[in-house]
Amino acid sequence: MDGLVWIFAYGSLMWRPGFAYRAFEPALLKGWHRALCVYSYIYRGSPAHPGLVLGLDRGGRCHGRAIGIAPEREREVLAYLDQRELVTDVYRRLRLPVRLCRAGRMVEAWCYVVRRDHEQYAGVLPRDELLRLVRRGAGRAGSCRDYVLNTLAHLREMGIREPHLEAVAVALEE
């Protein structure tokens, strides 16, 4: 695993990276947390009826996966990820320290974190507003409700507990 370039995945990159990799490790990112904090106007919503998607927001910690790639593929993979993640520039790519849980060591990993100064940053919304957006949002990639439930199902399969998303899922079923 030495000499690899690392990418931290906290959402769909964990189960649908879209590129070949050499390592796939449970990882912990401190100082950031997974949150439904980004208005979606394209993939899970529209300008008239925005949905919400996940972002890495400041504070807390996030269990995810570190994906290791060969250094000679870094430019190619980051170009692909930038095209996928930076569609509206609500995220920025940073290198942050990530703990590889099995190996018990720290690595620098590329992370896509939310820009709080962007118009699509929703921040922490009141529960009723969050649920309204999730229930109504639908875009090119489908409904926001399906996105949230599918994300939660994948996180559960990977052994990652996400109490906030669990509470949202329970409320969606009411």
Can you put this structure into words, describing what you see?
Helices cover 27% and strands 38% of the residues. By secondary structure, the protein is α+β, with helices and mostly antiparallel strands. The protein has a single domain, classed as Roll (Hypothetical upf0131 protein ytfp). The strands form two sheets. It has a five-stranded mixed beta barrel. The protein has a two-stranded antiparallel sheet with strand order 6-7. The longest helix has 14 residues, at 144-157. It is globular and about 45 Å long. The model has no long low-confidence stretch (mean pLDDT 95).
Topology:
Layout: E1 5-9, E2 23-40, E3 51-69, H1 74-85, E4 91-100, E5 105-114, H2 127-136, E6 138-139, E7 142-143, H3 144-157, H4 163-173
Helix pairs in contact: 3-4
Supply database-style keywords.
Hypothetical upf0131 protein ytfp, 174 residues, alpha+beta, 5-stranded mixed β-barrel
Poorly predicted regions are none
The rounded Rg comes to 16 Å
What is the residue-mean pLDDT, rounded to a whole number?
A: 95
Strand order of the largest sheet: 1-3-2-4-5
Number of helices: 4
Main sheet summary: 5 strands, mixed, barrel
Strand content: 35-45%
Q: In sequence order, what are the helices and strands, one letter per element?
A: EEEHEEHEEHH
Structural class: alpha+beta
Shape: globular
| CATH level-four homologous superfamily name | Gamma-glutamyl cyclotransferase-like
Q: Supply the CATH class.
A: Alpha Beta
Helix content: 25-40%
The number of distinct structural domains comes to 1
